[in-house]
Every structure is written in structure tokens, then in C-alpha cells.
Amino acid sequence: MNSNxxxxxxxxxxxxxxxxxxxxxxxxxxxxxxxxxxxxxxxxVQLNGHVSWKSATLKPQKGGxxxxxxxxxxFLRTDLVTKGIDIQYQDQxxxxxxxxxxxxxxxxxxxxxxxxxxxNYGGHTLVKAWFxxxxxxxxx
Length: 140
Prior knowledge:
The protein is mostly beta strands. The chain has one domain. Helix content is 5%, strand content 51%. The strands form 2 sheets. It has a 6-stranded antiparallel barrel with strand order 1-4-5-8-7-6. The protein has a two-stranded antiparallel ribbon with strand order 2-3. The protein is globular.
């Protein structure tokens, strides 16, 4: 076994701004086990991630059609450890990119997968955060 395997790198690193959900600061309905009003959010964290848009589908709802954009953002575990954060379910991605490529989004983490397992680095080296678009639909 080669102990000098390099750490993985992101193919197309892009700046991603994240607001993590603050469960201790959120008022919860104990019976329904959901936030009352809006969930409290922590401070803004900036990380490099590889963004991959996978699908865009139209989901019919009672109040009108809702566009669901699914994809994932791949992060290096070393970046997450350095910033002292752990991506969790319902964390919010609200800006992707910089400069002319800056895009304001309303994406929420739906699932976390750990990738790039390497025993020489103590387990996984990549974190894949699957997201869905929760932006409200505008009716004119």
C-alpha cells in the first residue's frame, strides 16, 4: 500500500457561501418537530467547492408549479476541518461564484455523502452535499 497518495483536488473550485442552521437558536414545535417560523442561521462561511447541477424538474403543487433543481457541491474535508464546520441537513447555500459569475441561489442541503476514503488520511477526504432549490415560484 502506498502511504504517499496525494489528497484529492477539486476540478473546478468555486467560492460557495454557506449559512448553517443553528438548531439551538431556533424555536421548535415539539409535537411537529419542525421550526416555528424561520430557522435560525449562523454566521456566513465561505468555502471552495465543485458545483455540479444534475437535473431541473417541474413539480406540480397545489399553489402552482415548483421548479426543483438538484445537484451537489463537493467539498474537501480538509477545508471543512480548517474552517471548523460540518455540513448538515438543511444548511443553506446562498451564493455561488465571484465577480461576473456570482449567482445568488436558495439551495438547501438534502443529503450528505462521504467520498474518497483513504485510511492514510483517517477516512473520507471528500464531502458531497446534495442540494435542492427551495426558491419560491413567482406568479405574474
